[in-house]
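Notebook entry, structure prediction.
Reason for the run: the old model in the group folder had no record of what sequence produced it. Starting over properly, with the input documented here first.
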Amino acid sequence: MTSLSDLEHLAEIELQEEDEEEDEEEDEGEARVADAPSSSPPPLQSLASHPYYDVARHGIIQVSGDDNYGRKLITFSSCCLPPSHQLNHRRLLEYLKYTLDQYVEMDYILVYFHHGLRSSNKPSLKWLREAYGEFDRKYKKNLKTLYVVHPTNFIRIVWNIFKPLISHKFGKKLMYVNFLDELREHVNYEQLIIPADVVRHDEKLREAQKSGAPPPAKTPPPRPPLPTQQFGVSLQYIREKNREAIIPPVMQQTVTYLKEKGE
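New structure, fully documented this time:
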């Protein structure tokens, strides 16, 4: 069974690999991308007196009209997150709650644009756990759907980490969206505030799909073994990770089990 710490370690590795892929894409299309804006934050003049100006000025969270049933749309864009050392994530959580408090008495929709989340700007998993804990029934009850746009393996690993904390009822509200066009079936797409970086990323994904050609063959770098891994690693590695134990823990535990349970 994979432990929580192993999953968190795996999530970090996955995000680092996604960072490397993003860096390669940016290098290939640098000239074209440089001519386009990366996002469209709200006018600074309108935010000067905002109680959360330090967070709101980045345009991370936006209220974007209504869905096809008249429910308020709220978006969260990862590509607008500045580097972690430039943003107080506690303030980010407070600002998110401040925004939601204006709409949670009615049905509402959340749209999360995952593209642009990097190792350098992501909130910690501890922060995510604390955030989920602070969103009590008031916030969860009237949330009708959480759309996760352009999900990656990192998202799926994080979902597995949070599964024990998430109710079955809330889990059914999650919907993965692979392409922006899929949102048209559910929301008033023209009202959505979508960062230019997200639009460009969607175009790249669609071009790759239309070509039908697989991405350039690339041997992924070998993933480092997990701290508790005991198969597929050397005895020396197991010994170093288990306080110089002479006998691998899995063998010790097997022998102990047989002694206690065997007949």
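Summary: The CA atoms of residues 11 and 157 lie 6 Å apart.
The old model has been moved to the deprecated folder.
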